[in-house]
């Protein structure tokens, strides 16, 4: 059944080339808030518009099409003209503009208008509103930037407000319609509660929905290369491209869509690749490192990551799957072909010191070229209820508002990055609500009202959940041990993570968005401990060569002795091996280098033999 508040006018005829105009057959349906105004013209004398009042809107014309794009006053002019309004004025501090009918400076039937360029006070504006209400034909007055009036006119504002309040009650409908006063406010509560009555209707103006975005795109699209050609050659393909553009710009203002179209035209981006222009606008950078990912490096990535993280073949394989999926922009594609989710999400869980952070660094090096190109957040520092302000920024009026949030600032500066959230379970539960929005929509609004996009970032969470639990006396009780097979370790840790999000936090929806990307790391097993030791010992030798140009050589017997000593206790994983190596080798090596003394460019022989207590003892000599 047709909407009586928005009757469909007859269609427009084809243009001179025999082709229907752009968007033909796709008739414009006014946004809900505009239809509400039309529906209540006969029962409401004033409307309070708030919210998205500074945006642009598709302007309807007879025929049901969007002929162009205009601001709120131009949009209202079209809506009211269609309903028979012949006079429409806009007040913008402190000037008056005739949008319909009267010209400035004319008088008609007792309606006195200010001369062009004259300053219009609130007292004079109230008098004009009374005169319009007394006219036999319905008219309208738009009060723009009304939220600023208390600051600009502190002495006049309250009397003016009372006059228009009284007018809202006493006004009479003529020809089935009221002469209107339309307020344009930032927020609905910018006008006092006492002003509301049965004749005054609040109308929130939301950001453009999918339908409005499509209208804006059709109006702005012709400036983009390839748009007109697609419209003439394949209207079906054009509809698909327009829908894709609208899908990828959810949450943006209509004016931002116009900006994207202008950028695409300036950069000569073809309409078929409008996704590049959307990404450019959201992230502020034209280049996309994911498009430049080295295929050979990714194919060889298992070797690279396995050398960095020893004994975690399953974690390495799963992480590489995420990278390959992200390279083809398939993250979240099963839910929507235009998903805005982050490029990749990984949840690393397992015992301490097994390589969770190291694997995150390896992924960063593989994708972004450097192991240091990541941003780390120690979530134990965010265990207070107000900690979300550190990540997002303080709200307006609070100390630090102008600084912004640590997380939002980091992503704005480096949108192509890996975000590492260490020990996520130690953060305050309120922080989880932030991640819910990021994982679902790929965006976050900072305390300053800026939208930050995470669509090209990789998110890595680490956790020790399921490894131990605190006993009633405060001691830690291990839940998994090295003697368990990996399958049992994985099952216990995964179960503990699910219980934590489902029952402890009561946030199963977060777990649902992480999906099957939980990667459980195994203990450092004895057969892999030697590889961890060799890597750490190699790091020490390499650092000495780089920093002091000293070549250190150890015999095989010494290596075996150091390895046996450093890998005696594997309960603390790789960190435990590193701590033991520091104690039995790095510290005595430093003492011996000073005592020798070792000079730059020398070649030093290191002899390691067991001491009286079995501890390795070091002797250095020059070649």
> Which bin fits the share of residues in helices?
40-55%
Main pleated-sheet profile: 6 strands, mixed
How many distinct domains?
4
Low-pLDDT regions:
1-27, 103-108
Shape: elongated
How does this model look, in words?
- This protein has 623 residues and is α/β, with parallel strands linked by helices.
- The chain folds into four domains: 32-205, P-loop containing nucleotide triphosphate hydrolases (Rossmann fold), CATH 3.40.50.300; 210-286, no CATH class; 295-520, P-loop containing nucleotide triphosphate hydrolases (Rossmann fold, 3-Layer(aba) Sandwich); 526-622, Helicase, Ruva Protein, domain 3 (Orthogonal Bundle), CATH 1.10.8.60.
- It is built from 22 helices and 22 strands.
- A six-stranded mixed β-sheet has the order 5-4-8-9-1-10, sandwiched between helices.
- Helix 18 (486-504) packs across helix 19.
- The longest helix is centred in the C-terminal third of the chain and has 23 residues, at 526-548.
- The protein is elongated and about 110 Å long.
- The relative contact order is 0.07.
List keywords for this structure.
single chain, 623 residues, alpha/beta, Rossmann fold, 4 domains, six-stranded mixed β-sheet, five-stranded parallel β-sheet, 22 helices, 22 strands, elongated, disordered N terminus
């Amino acid at each position: 059944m047709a909407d009586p508040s928005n009757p469909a006018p007859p269609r427009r005829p084809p243009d001179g080339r025999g082709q229907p105009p752009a968007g033909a057959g796709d008739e414009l349906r006014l946004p809900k808030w505009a239809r509400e105004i039309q529906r209540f013209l006969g029962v409401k004398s004033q409307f309070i518009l708030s919210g998205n009042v500074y945006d642009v809107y598709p302007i309807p014309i007879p025929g049901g099409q969007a002929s162009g794009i205009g601001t709120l006053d131009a949009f209202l002019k079209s809506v009211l003209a269609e309903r028979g309004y012949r006079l429409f004025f806009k007040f913008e501090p402190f000037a008056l503009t005739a949008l319909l009918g009267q010209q400035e400076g004319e008088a008609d039937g007792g309606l006195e208008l200010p001369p062009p360029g004259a300053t219009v006070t609130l007292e004079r504006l109230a008098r004009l509103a009374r005169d319009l209400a007394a006219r036999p034909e319905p008219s309208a007055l738009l009060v723009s930037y009304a939220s600023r009036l208390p600051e600009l006119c502190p002495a006049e504002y309250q009397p003016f407000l009372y006059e228009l309040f009284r007018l809202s009650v006493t006004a009479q409908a003529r020809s089935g319609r009221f002469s209107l006063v339309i307020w344009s406010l930032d927020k609905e509560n910018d006008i006092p509660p006492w002003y509301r009555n049965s004749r005054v209707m609040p109308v929130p103006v939301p950001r453009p929905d999918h339908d409005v975005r499509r209208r804006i795109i059709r109006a702005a699209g012709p400036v983009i290369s390839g748009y007109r050609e697609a419209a003439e050659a394949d209207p079906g393909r054009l509809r698909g491209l327009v829908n894709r553009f609208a899908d990828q710009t959810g949450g943006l203002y209509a004016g931002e869509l116009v900006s994207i179209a202008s950028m695409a035209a300036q950069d000569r981006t073809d309409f078929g690749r409008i996704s590049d222009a959307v990404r450019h606008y959201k992230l502020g950078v034209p280049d996309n490192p994911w498009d430049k990912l080295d295929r050979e490096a990714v194919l060889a990535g298992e070797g690279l990551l396995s050398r960095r993280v020893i004994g975690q073949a399953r974690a390495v394989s799963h992480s590489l799957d995420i990278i390959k999926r992200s390279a083809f922009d398939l993250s979240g594609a099963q839910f929507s072909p235009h998903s805005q989710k982050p490029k990749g999400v990984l949840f690393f869980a397992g015992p301490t010191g097994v390589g969770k952070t190291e694997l995150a660094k390896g992924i960063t090096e593989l994708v972004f070229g450097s192991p240091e190109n990541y941003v780390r957040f120690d979530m134990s520092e965010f265990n207070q209820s107000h900690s979300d302000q550190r990540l997002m920024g303080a709200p307006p009026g609070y100390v630090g508002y102008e600084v912004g949030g640590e997380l939002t600032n980091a992503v704005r500066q480096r949108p192509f990055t890996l975000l590492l959230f260490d020990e996520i379970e130690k953060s305050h539960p309120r922080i989880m609500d932030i991640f819910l929005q990021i994982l679902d929509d790929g965006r976050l609004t900072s305390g300053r009202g800026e939208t930050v996009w995470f669509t090209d970032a990789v998110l890595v969470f680490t956790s020790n959940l399921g490894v131990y639990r605190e006993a009633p006396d405060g001691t830690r009780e291990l839940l998994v041990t090295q003697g368990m097979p990996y399958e049992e370790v994985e099952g216990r840790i995964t179960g503990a993570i699910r219980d934590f999000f489902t029952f402890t936090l009561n946030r199963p929806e977060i777990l649902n968005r992480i999906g099957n990307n939980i990667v459980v790391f195994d203990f450092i097993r004895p057969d892999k401990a030697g590889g961890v030791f060799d890597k750490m010992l190699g790091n020490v030798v390499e650092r000495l060569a780089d920093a002091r140009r000293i070549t250190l050589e150890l015999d095989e017997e010494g290596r075996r002795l150091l390895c046996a000593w450093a890998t005696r206790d594997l309960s603390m994983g790789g960190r435990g091996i590193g701590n033991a190596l520091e104690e039995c080798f790095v510290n005595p090596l430093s003492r011996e280098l000073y005592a020798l003394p070792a000079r730059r460019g020398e070649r030093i022989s290191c002899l390691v033999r067991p001491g009286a207590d079995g501890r390795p003892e070091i002797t250095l000599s020059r070649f």
